[in-house]
Design goal:
This protein has 487 residues and is of the alpha/beta class. It contains 14 helices and 18 strands. The strands form 4 sheets. Strands 1, 2, 3, 4, 5, 6, 7, 8 and 9 form a 9-stranded mixed beta sheet that branches. Strands 14-13-12-17-18 form a 5-stranded parallel beta sheet, sandwiched between helices. The chain has a two-stranded antiparallel sheet with strand order 10-11.
Length: 487
């Protein structure tokens, strides 16, 4: 395109014409080699085979993980969960589900019309965009006019995962600050301030990356994703579909969203512990087939850390025999010359009375010690187990048994203990963390840690002992659902 204006000129006014076109919401201004080209929005979108634009401030856009993936040449290797992108607008958005949009960076902000109406161009100053590293997204879902209270609940339930968004947004407060800086200039009619931004509503759009714009200004489509990526581990969608086929509930399509919808049926209800969840009733033969698929997906076998040295190691709390196994797993890898500069236990005050036999079995195996009773909670039991091990020193991190959210109490979960740990012993960017856990929970707990430690993104690794022979099928299915939900 030939340009008649440049980035060095004074800000545009409504009287400016570029390429014979006036400033208008029906046109697009894009900078190329320092010059501004203006084209009709319809022609611009037709070139990239999209419905419309998604504009993102350049400072936010440049730090986006999908931009980095394109620049580093790994974009084709992204798992389906890694292709997810959640975006926030003030109040509402005009995007439509199943339509495709091109995301471009805003290199110079514009200003809305004086009347504040979409159809008006009076006083309108268009933003100047860049198509460098532009990304193509398909809209998966949209929610309009969401209050911040509603959004907080959605984040707690993993309906919204801030780690799938821009680096500048990692919690509600950072979202408010981002929206404030983004809209204070372009939407002066709203009179946004730090004190009133909480009274606004937001639109949430869930996108899926389907392509990008290359250096020739051409659209490049990504191949269909075949896996879910969790750390260095991959769950193949074909394997998930095979599992659901064995259980006679497989969807027609093998895509992430259809599979997740089916797997969701095994999600634990709020307040229900894993041991309290009824098992799936299948024949012995089908259970063996299912567990063979779970083994292939990485939910059964022992996992080993890749490094020999980590800044932090965390032993996750659980039932007594599981905690015993996790402590022994840490002792085992220390003998294999894996070291952690600091070692922590992460537990809560929850009672372990749902499985009373575990106290009897532990006390019989440690008859020379002061016995544990059902009055002891998870933290007490972990301390007792660690005291009899070779691990020292170990720093306990304690979380309340029940978490209160807006008057509702629920049991503490993996995410709660990880958040408490991060509050007290922050793992900074560039540091490394080793999670000591057990199968079949390892992959879910890794996904939960990756979500919790955003935006620091430390290196997170796993060591986990093999799943017990008597592992229940529902436990594996619940963990698989948790990976879909959190990853």
């Amino acid at each position: 395109m030939v340009s008649t204006n440049s980035m060095g000129d004074t800000p545009q006014t409504p009287s400016n014409l570029i390429n014979g076109l006036p400033p208008s919401k029906d046109n697009v201004d894009v900078v190329n080699n320092g010059s501004i080209a203006r084209s009709k929005l319809s022609e611009f979108c037709a070139h990239y085979q999209v419905t419309n634009l998604c504009r993102i401030p350049v400072a936010e856009f440049q730090g986006a993980r999908h931009v980095h993936a394109v620049q580093s040449g790994i974009v084709n290797e992204l798992g389906c969960n890694q292709r997810q992108f959640v975006h926030f607008n003030l109040q509402h958005t005009t995007v439509e589900v199943d339509k495709e949009y091109i995301a471009l960076s805003i290199v110079q902000s514009g200003q809305g019309s004086k009347l504040g109406k979409v159809e008006s161009n009076e006083g309108y100053i268009p933003p100047i965009l860049s198509n460098q590293n532009a990304l193509i997204y398909r809209v998966v879902n949209v929610r309009q006019e969401v209050t911040f209270d509603e959004l907080e609940k959605m984040a707690q339930d993993s309906e919204v995962n801030f780690s799938h968004g821009l680096n500048s947004i990692y919690d509600l407060d950072s979202l408010k600050q981002t929206l404030l800086s983004r809209y204070q200039h372009s939407r002066k009619d709203l009179g946004l301030t730090e004190s009133n931004i909480s009274q606004q509503t937001v639109a949430i759009t869930w996108f899926e990356l389907v392509g990008y714009v290359d250096e020739r200004d051409q659209r490049v489509n990504l191949p269909e994703p075949q896996h879910i990526q969790v750390g260095e581990m991959r769950i193949q969608l074909d394997d998930v579909h095979e599992l659901l086929t064995i259980l006679n509930v497989a969807p027609e399509e093998k895509n992430f969203h259809d599979l997740a919808t089916v797997v969701k049926q095994w999600r634990r209800p709020p307040g229900i512990l894993r041991s309290q969840q009824p098992d799936v009733v299948v024949t012995k033969e089908k259970k063996a087939q299912c567990l063979a698929v779970f083994k292939k997906m990485g939910f059964v076998d022992e996992t080993h850390p890749a490094l020999n040295q980590y800044d932090h190691g965390v032993i996750m709390g659980a039932a007594i025999p599981t905690m015993q196994n996790r402590v022994e797993q840490m002792e085992k890898i220390i003998k294999q010359e894996v070291q952690c500069s600091k070692l922590f236990t992460l537990t809560s005050a929850r009672k372990l009375t749902e499985q009373p036999d575990q106290f009897t079995q532990y006390n019989q195996a440690h008859s020379q010690l002061t016995p544990l009773s059902t009055e002891h909670n998870e933290t007490d039991a972990m301390a007792h187990i660690v005291s009899q091990s070779s691990l020292s020193p170990v720093i306990p991190v304690f979380c309340d048994a029940m978490i209160e959210e807006k008057g509702i109490r629920r049991p503490a979960n993996t995410s709660d203990t990880l958040q408490r740990y991060q509050q007290r012993h922050r793992v900074e960017k560039g540091k490394s963390l080793l999670m000591v856990t057990s199968q079949p929970h390892a992959m879910y707990q890794l996904a939960s840690a990756q979500k919790t430690f955003f935006p620091e993104r430390p290196t997170i690794a796993l060591t986990a002992n093999k799943a017990p022979e008597d592992t229940r099928l529902i436990t594996c299915l619940d963990s698989l659902d948790s990976v879909f939900r959190v990853a």
